[in-house]
Amino acid sequence: MKKILFVDDSRDTADALRDIASELGHVGAVAYNGASAVDAAASETFDVIFLDLMLPDADGVTVCLEIRKGRSKSARIVALTGSNELIDKSQQCIDEWVLKPLYMDQLERLLS
């Protein structure tokens, strides 16, 4: 069982991913913007964080860098993006990149 944080400004997306992770036997939490993601990762330790790169209040890379300073600094961070133009693999804080939408088989693979 893993503790997972889903960060996405689409509440439906974040909530659905949390629910699917729960059905797979994991503990899921959600954050709908960058500030709440940083706060959550500072107060709890997550094993995996799925991070939307385009948030209304901050870009995902900035959020990722802030998360790496908190309790979840060793979490595996998977960037979720709707555009492969936003993927910059030189960013040291992101472990893996996935183009949206995230499919069930991808989620299972990423959590295994």
Task: Outline the structure in words.
There is one protein chain. This protein has 112 residues and is an alpha/beta fold. The protein has a single domain, classed as Rossmann fold, CATH 3.40.50.2300. Helix content is 35%, strand content 22%. It contains 4 helices and 5 strands, in the order βαβαβαββα. Strands 2-1-3-4-5 form a 5-stranded parallel β-sheet, with helices on both faces. Helix 2 packs parallel to helix 3. The radius of gyration is 12 Å and the shape is globular. The N and C termini lie close together (10 Å). The model has no long low-confidence stretch (mean pLDDT 90). One of its GO terms (biological process) is phosphorelay signal transduction system. Pfam families: Response_reg. This is PAS/PAC sensor hybrid histidine kinase.
Helix share bin: 25-40%
The largest beta-sheet arranges its strands as 2-1-3-4-5
- The chain-level mean pLDDT equals 90
Dominant shape: globular
Q: Please outline the major beta sheet.
A: 5 strands, parallel
Quick structural overview:
The chain has 4 helices and 5 strands; from the N terminus they run βαβαβαββα. The protein is an alpha/beta fold and 112 residues long.
Question: What layout of secondary structure does this protein have?
Answer:
Elements: E1 3-7, H1 11-23, E2 27-31, H2 34-43, E3 48-52, H3 60-67, E4 76-81, E5 96-99, H4 104-111
Parallel strand pairs: 1-2, 1-3, 3-4, 4-5
Helix pairs in contact: 2-3
